[in-house]
Design brief:
Blueprint lengths: L10 E5 L8 H14 L4 E5 L5 H5 L11 H6 L9 E2 L6 E4 L8 H4 L9 H10 L8 E5 L6 H9 L2 E7 L8 H14 L5 E8 L6 H14 L12 H5 L7 H4 L4 H16 L11
Parallel strand pairs: 1-5, 1-6, 2-4, 2-5, 6-7
Antiparallel strand pairs: 3-4
Helix pairs in contact: 1-11, 5-6
Bound molecules: adenosine-5'-diphosphate (ADP) and magnesium ion.
Length: about 280
C-alpha cells in the first residue's frame, strides 16, 4: 500500500491488440484506477466507439456527449471533453460515444489525420493537464486510423495478451504495424510492457502460453499476471472498476500490483536512465 512514485515526466501508454476480448479495456481502466487510487493523476482516453472504458469508469457517454470524437474531428480541447470519474476523482476520462464509429472514415480526408490525438494530448499536457502522471489510451480491436492516432500520441505500447488458445496469433501483425509507425510517424514508440491477462494457474495451457510469451518478450512482461476472475468481469456491469467494486479481490490486488510494477520500472528499458 502507500502512494505510487510519480514519474519524472508524463508517461503515455497505448493499450493495443487488434484481437477483441483480450483485456484491453479491462486493463486500461483498472491500471488507470489503481494508479489514481494511489495518488497519481491519470488521464484515460476511450478510443473505442463501444465506450466500454467510459462505462466502467461511470462516465456518461450518450451520443452527443463531448468526447474523443470531438477531440479528433472538431479539434475540441481535451479540457472541454474530460470528466472526473465519480468514485476516483484523480482519474480523468475522455469518453467515447458511438459517434466515434464513423471517425475512422471521416478522418481519412483530414489534414494531419494520424497526428490529431497527439496534438490534442500534447496541448493538454502543456496546459490544464500539466499535473497528469500517466495517460492510458484504450484502443478498438483494429489497426485502423484510431489505433494509429493512439500509437502516434503514445511513447509506450502496453500489449495485453490473453492466456488462451491462439494468444500469439496476430501478434506479428501488431508488431509489424508498430514497426511501421516507428519508421514513419513516431520513432520514440516503444513496446515497453506486456501484461498476461485471464491467467488460470490451474491449467497447463495458461502456464505454457505465459512461458512462451516470457520467452519471446523477456523482461518486458510484467511479473504480475492478471488471473481469470468473475469479479473482474462483473465490475463494469455496476459501472465500477475492480479497484472500487471489490478492492480486496485477487483481481483488484493483481491490477494494483501490475500498476505498482509499471510505476517502479520507470520509463522503457530502451530508454536507459531517462527516469532516474
Ligand atoms: P478488449 O477490450 O480487449 O476487447 P475486455 O477488457 O473488454 O477486452 O475483456 C473482454 C471480456 O473479458 C469482458 O467481458 C471482460 O469483462 C472480461 N475479462 C477481462 N479480463 C478478465 C479477467 N481477468 N477475468 C475474467 N474476465 C475478464
Ligand atoms: Mg475494449
Amino acid at each position: 500500500s502507500g502512494r505510487y512514485e510519480r514519474p519524472s515526466h508524463t508517461r503515455v501508454f497505448v493499450v493495443a491488440n487488434q484481437k477483441g476480448g483480450v483485456g484491453k479495456t479491462t486493463t486500461s481502466v483498472n491500471l488507470a484506477a489503481a494508479m489514481a487510487a494511489r495518488g497519481l493523476s491519470v488521464l484515460l482516453i476511450d478510443l473505442d466507439p463501444q465506450g466500454n472504458a467510459s462505462t466502467a469508469a461511470a462516465i456518461p457517454h450518450a451520443s452527443g456527449t463531448p468526447g474523443t470524437y470531438e477531440v479528433l474531428l472538431d479539434e475540441l480541447p481535451i479540457e472541454d471533453a474530460v470528466q472526473a470519474s465519480p468514485d476516483i476523482p484523480a482519474l480523468r476520462v475522455v469518453p467515447a460515444t458511438i459517434d466515434l464509429a464513423g471517425a475512422e472514415i471521416e478522418l481519412v480526408g483530414l489534414e494531419q489525420r494520424e497526428r490529431r490525438l497527439r496534438t490534442a494530448i500534447d496541448t493538454y499536457l502543456a496546459g490544464p493537464g500539466a499535473d497528469i502522471d500517466y495517460v492510458f489510451i484504450d484502443c478498438p480491436p483494429s489497426l485502423g486510423l484510431l489505433t494509429i492516432n493512439a500509437m502516434v500520441a503514445a511513447r509506450e505500447v502496453l500489449i495485453p495478451i490473453q492466456c488462451e488458445y491462439y494468444a500469439l496469433e496476430g501478434l506479428s501483425q501488431l508488431l509489424g504495424n508498430i514497426g511501421l509507425v516507428q519508421q514513419h510517424l513516431n520513432q520514440d514508440l516503444d513496446v515497453s510492457t506486456i501484461l498476461l491477462t485471464m491467467h488460470d494457474a490451474r491449467t497447463n495451457l495458461s502456464s505454457s502460453v505465459a512461458a512462451e510469451v516470457r520467452g519471446h518478450f523477456g523482461d518486458r512482461v510484467l511479473s504480475t499476471a492478471i488471473p481469470r476472475s468473475v469479479r473482474i468481469s462483473e465490475a463494469p456491469g455496476y459501472q465500477q472498476t475492480i479497484i472500487t467494486y471489490d478492492p480486496n479481490s485477487t483481481g483488484a490486488l493483481s491490477y494494483m500490483e501490475a500498476a505498482r510494477e509499471i510505476t517502479q520500472r520507470g520509463a522503457a528499458p530502451a530508454d536507459q536512465g531517462a527516469s532516474s
